[in-house]
Structure formats: structure tokens, C-alpha cells
Amino acid sequence: MMNLNTLKDYYYNSPLWLKRLYASIPFDIRNGTDYRQWKNFLRSNCNAEEYELLKLKETLVHAYENTPFYYDMFTALGAHPNDINSAKELSLLPLIDKQTVKENFDAMTARNINNKDLFFVTTGGSSGQATKFLQSKNVWAKESAFIYNYFEKYGYSVDRTKKASLRGGNFNGLAHNVFWKFNPIYNEIQLSPFHITHDTIRHYVDILNKERPTYLHGYPSTTLALVKFMQDNHLELFYQIDTIFLISEDYTQKNIADIKSFFNCRVVTFFGHSERLIFAGTASEDLKTYQIDRRYGLFELLDSTEKPITQEGIKGEMVGTSFDNFAQPLIRYKTSDMSAYESYDSRVLTTIKGERNKEFIVGKNDETIFLIALNVHTDDYKNIINGQFVQTQKGHIDFNIVVNNSFQEDERQTILDILADRAGFVVDFNVNIVPRLEVTHRGKVLPLIQKL
User: What is the architecture, at CATH level 2, of domain 359-450?
Assistant: First the structure.
């Protein structure tokens, strides 16, 4: 029997007519019994704290009994899953991270799982290299249920509403001046995030006005690029977008304000990640707070000494423990994402910042200059649509930029002066105007490509 990765490949390599035939089956039906059971569960009421403890115990016992890594860990500690009877007692166990998974991949994989019952996922590679994880197939149904339950709060329905996406995909073999594909399974137009330029933007707007999808689902960087290119070329949509779902990237309040004001619609987002340990939807219209869903996985926030945070306003690292993943359970996994509690009792977080805030460039004498110090989100860069730093040798940086039609050549020197000052004059910068920036295989624009 084929696993989910193989089935996914079969679907995406199928002819369009077959995809449409499959998509004619109602979404809830084709997603299977597990999906429908999860959707029903999410619509019901449960005691979050009791459920959290129940699922935690399930994860600990399964990991202890079926994975060499966790059996050896408990044995070395002289402990047993029965010793942990609250989320607070989980701190008795050590933390793990991506490197732990890479070094112990086989030992962390459950011995009682069959190939047909698992699939693999990878991180986006935002830290330089992608990391592979195994998950049991029931996690796919669970993940889909949580996402679409969240989308439905804003009136979205796969069967009844059309969506456009700007979040990666395979765009090989496109016809001339066609920068999208139709994906019937999700009733969406997949717009390529790899091809948006001044020369192509009119084609993007034409297909949007033709198909009129009322929901947009994409990375903040590509959604903002769509806005800026449309503004710069005096293009507009002749219909109303209902809601924009942003995913997978950090954003500023100005980013959100720019997108909202241009489309005059709601903009919402949720926190999720490939490891599938934490799920949190935005809890306010300004996208400054997130509500942790305690039914998804066990959430911890740790300070710089790796102690649990239980007070508001203290910044810490987000740590998760998986529920329901019987292929490769992850216990106390450090995500590298940072936040603070606005309300500990309600598990409401302030804005989540990803590991990219830790990125830095290297000066001539090995100085460390964090990327955030260069602050490329001010009015000094108002005529830059998007920018990307590239470092191939210490003390030297190429700042590649995509500009709008108002950009003047004398602004190049202004940008050079600002960057040199903010970097303490220990880095030589080049400013290069390019038609598009380098993106990941998923279509994300990385602020820094570090090649040292």
C-alpha cells in the first residue's frame, strides 16, 4: 500500500481532468474518516487542560515503549513516563532540536510503524539546510482539520469558495506568459511566487480579475510584492477580496497595514510549522497576538536559562511536544521561534518572531552585525519593493534590490551610506538592482543568503 508522499506525487502528476474528477467529491468526504472525526472534535467542547495531559501521557508512553532514543533517555534519567503527571513535570526531560533529530533519526523512529502508515516532511530550510521528519498518516488528517477549521471561521469553504495562493509549488512547463496552475483539489489558482516582476505583474492581475478568487493565501513577502508591483504599475482588482491568509514568515505592522489598505479586506494568519507541534491562530485584528490551541500539542515557553515562563511579558523560546505522531514523536523540541505571554492563563502570545531574527552578517574583523540592526523597513527604503543581502566573504555584502518606477539613481548612494553607518563601517556594501530575488524551493524570499 502506498504512503501519503507517493499518493501526493500521483495526484500532482495526474492530468487536469482526473484532478477535477477527484475534486468533484465533497472535500470532507474525500479527506476521509479521520479528517471528519477531527473536524467534529474541534467543533465540540473539551477541558483543554485534561485533554492536554491525556495526550501528553499517550505520547510519553508510546515514545518510551517504541523508540530506542526515548527508552534510553528515560533509562539514563532513572525515570518512567508514569513519573510525569503534569505539564510542569515535563521539565524533568531534556530538550531536543533539529540537530538531535538529524543525529538520532533512526533511534527516534518508532519500531512499530509500517511504511504505509507514515510520511515525511521537511522544514523550509530557513536556517540553511532542510531537516527531514517522519509523521504518521493520521497527523495529515489532523493538520488539515485544524487549518480548515480555522479558515472556516472567516467564511472559507473549499467546496464553495475559490482561493488564490502565493506560497510555492512546481511551476515547470508553464506556457508563455502563464505564471499559475489550477489545483482543483483545493479549488485554487496557484500563482507562482517565483516569477513576479514588473514585466509579469499584469498577467497575474489579469488572471485574478478573470477567476475572481475571494480568498488569498500566501507568504507575507510575496503578498506584499504583489501589492507593490500592482501599485507601481497602476493596476487594480475589479472585485473584492474577502480575506487574506498569511503564512510561514515574520512580518511587520507596516507590512500588514500596507496589505490591508490596498485590498481593503481582513488579513489573518496562524502559526504552524513542519514539525507540527504547535498551532496558534491570530487572536486580534492587528495580528499582534496569537491563541495557542492546547488540543494540538503541548506548548512551553522557556527563558534564556531554559526554565519555563509563567509570567506575562517575558520573551522566550517556543518549545513543543507532539500529540498523535506515532511515527517519530518529538518531546520538548526547541523551535527557535520567540514570543512572550500576553496572558499565561489563556495561553495568548504576543507577536511570534522566527529564527531569522538571530541571523547576522560578518564584518571585516569578524564582527557580528545582526540583520535586524540594518532595519530595512523604514522610509529610507520607500522605493524598494524587496531586498536581499548576500554574503560570500567577510566584510563584503551585496544588497540586491527590486525597485519601483520612482527609484532614482542617487538613492543608491543614500542606501549605501545608511547601511555602512548601521553596520558600523566594518562592512563594504554593493547595491545591485535586479528583476527578482533568489527564493527557496518553496518560493520564500530569504532576507539573508549567507554563503560564508
Answer: 2-Layer Sandwich (3.30)
